[in-house]
Amino acid sequence: MKITIFGATGGVGSECLRLAMEAGHEVTVVVRDAARLSLDPHHVMVADLRVAPDKKELILACEGADGVLSCVGPRSPKHDRGVVTAATRVIVAAMHAAHARRILIVSAAPVSTVPTPGNPDAPKHDPGEGPFARYVLTPIIKRALPTVYADLSAAEDVLRESGLDWTAVRPPRLTDKPGTGRYRTAPDRNLRGGLSIPRADVAAAMLAMVNQPSTVGHAMGVAT
User: Fold this and answer.
1) Do the Cβ atoms of 220 and 170 come closer than 8 Å?
2) Residue 8, CA distances (Å) to 39, 127, 183 in order
3) Separation of alpha carbons 168 and 171, rounded Å
4) Residue 79 has what pLDDT?
5) 116, exposed or middle or buried, with CB in 10 Å at 0-12, 13-18, 19+?
6) Paired residues of 44 in beta bridges
7) H-type helices in the chain, by residue range?
8) For range 162-170, the mean pLDDT
9) Phi and psi dihedrals of 2, rounded to 5?
10) Which end of the chain is more exposed for a tag (fewer CB within 10 A), N or C?
11) Tell me, what's the pLDDT at 136?
């Protein structure tokens, strides 16, 4: 496959890059700082999606892509507010211009209960979560990082309105443990007992979902 990865120097993005190259895919990455890349992909484009990047370069990065993976996230919640939403808008526009269809973005499990204009009927409690996550963990996390989840929720709205073949991937707490290959997924809900997941497993799930039509148009819970 031909895979384009935005944010390939971050935790999940670097794992997407590693796994995509190990699988023999043709990989294009779009990053802020190429010096931070852990591997040498086939094509590298340097762009800061927050400051009016070169549209022609982004269109070129998306042309012919079988899957576009956005692993963009804030380096600091205080200084990168709205970065995921802004990046998603830019990527969606580039994909339309490039006639690319398949996009997956990294979101987060707590987003499932955040109402937005595009998802006004979000449940008060995620139907897949157990009592601890529902009444203790998720409320604490949402209070601690409100701007992060507001940004991710708005980015999911951009996807819903995009007209593309989209999937939002919603992991719980991310770890740097080795991938297990035994992750679970569920459409439009989180996973009971799924309190964490290695970044490598999130990356593996995203690459697998590129060719899973059943995940199109869904926010996919993923956890080990």
Assistant:
1) yes
2) 10, 32, 21
3) 10
4) 65
5) middle
6) 29
7) 11-22, 55-62, 83-98, 131-132, 138-144, 146-160, 199-209
8) 98
9) -105, 115
10) N
11) 85
Cα 28 to Cα 57: distance, rounded to the nearest angstrom: 12
CA dist 165 and 69 (Å) reads 12
Residue 36: count other Cβ atoms within 10 Å of its Cβ.
11
Nearest alpha carbon to residue 147 among 74, 83, 81:
81
What CA–CA distance (Å, rounded) separates 108 from 77?
A: 14
Percent of the chain with pLDDT over 70: 97
Are 10 and 74 within 8 A, CB to CB?
Answer: no
Dihedral sign for Cα atoms in the order 198, 199, 202, 203: negative
If pLDDT is split at 50, 70 and 90, which confidence band does 68 have? very high
pLDDT band at 77 (very low <50, low <70, confident <90, very high): low
User: What is the tens place of the pLDDT at every residue in 84-132?
Assistant: 999 999 999 999 999 999 999 999 999 998 888 988 888 888 888 888 8
- The predicted model gives 128-154 an average pLDDT of 87
Neighbours of 55 (CB within 10 A): 13
Number of H helices, E strands in the chain: 7, 10
Q: Which tokens go with 143?
A: 């209070």
Position 145, amino acid: L
Task: Work out whether the CA dihedral 6, 12, 14, 19 comes out positive or negative.
Answer: negative
Residue 139 tokens read as 């409320």
Alpha carbon distance 50, 87 (integer Å): 7
